[in-house]
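Running this now, will post back.
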Amino acid sequence: MKRLGLFLGVFALLIAAPLAMAGDFHSGSTLICADCHVMHYSQTHGYNEDGSGIYAPLGNDGPYHYLLRNEINDLCLTCHNNASFAPDVLGANSNGYVRAAGALNRDGTAPYYHATGHTLDATDAAPGGTWTNPDGLHCTDCHHQHGAGGAYRNLRVKTGTAPANSTVTYAIGTNDLSKDVFERNTTPMAAHYADENIDFNEPDQTASKYAMFCQGCHTEFHGAKGGPEVGGSATGEWLRHPNSDANIGGIGGGHSRLSQYNGKVNKVKVMSATGVWDPAPADVTPSCMSCHKAHGNQHGFGLIFMSGTGTVTEEGDANGVSAKDLCKQCHIQG
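Update: finished.
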């Protein structure tokens, strides 16, 4: 495994230049078939003429469907767990930045219990929905292994029961307000998914493609204010927290207040139609990423306990101790 890590690290350096332009791996020139597939499940040497060269190891229980080198999750984790050249997505982060998506869990051991976010191999129905994978939750249930035509983080165009138009688009380096996500840069390679590097636009102020993507599995938790999922009316008294079409402080009455949000040094992520986040203008809208890490963290439900002060972490910030700190990012009661 040490030799494999060395090889993949060198390989990552070789493709760093095109990756910085492409923004995501497993797409175009960075889609390397042999990284994940093997012809006859019998490889014992590398691809060089003399048999040298290092390759991803084969799993113990193959051969596998689609000529894969290993089971889907184990294969993904070959590069995406405890590697410096690719985002580390499982458990504790081996890289030196705060992950925007946080951490997946798998075996349920502390501090990444099953209740702290998305659990690899889980067969349970998604909270708020009916979708499940009887073979266990796979990385490829949310991410497309061969790229996804310009979708952020190779997110699938459709997941679970999501509508086909739930593609989360993105821009790199220079913001494009017609895109859903803004990646400020891609250097270094693995860190272009760092929390400080990601912001969220709002090209459609009546809907959120990010929330629509999540809705594919978590059906009842996502929708516009007054809609069938959120319930209530367009002017308040909702049954579930909206994740689009509801600006901070927009309805008045003291429920939320923009000045409360702007008074925080550390702010949770919100969507902006103008590409301005700090200080946030009156158009900013909370969505799924405002309260939850997409993969999870060390808190139940992957919640972000952000008080507004102290060092920013994947759990929120150093002074955030409860869900109340998260609520008080926008709300003034209490």
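The beta strands are 170-172, 181-183, 198-201, 271-272, 312-313, 316-317. More later if anyone needs it.
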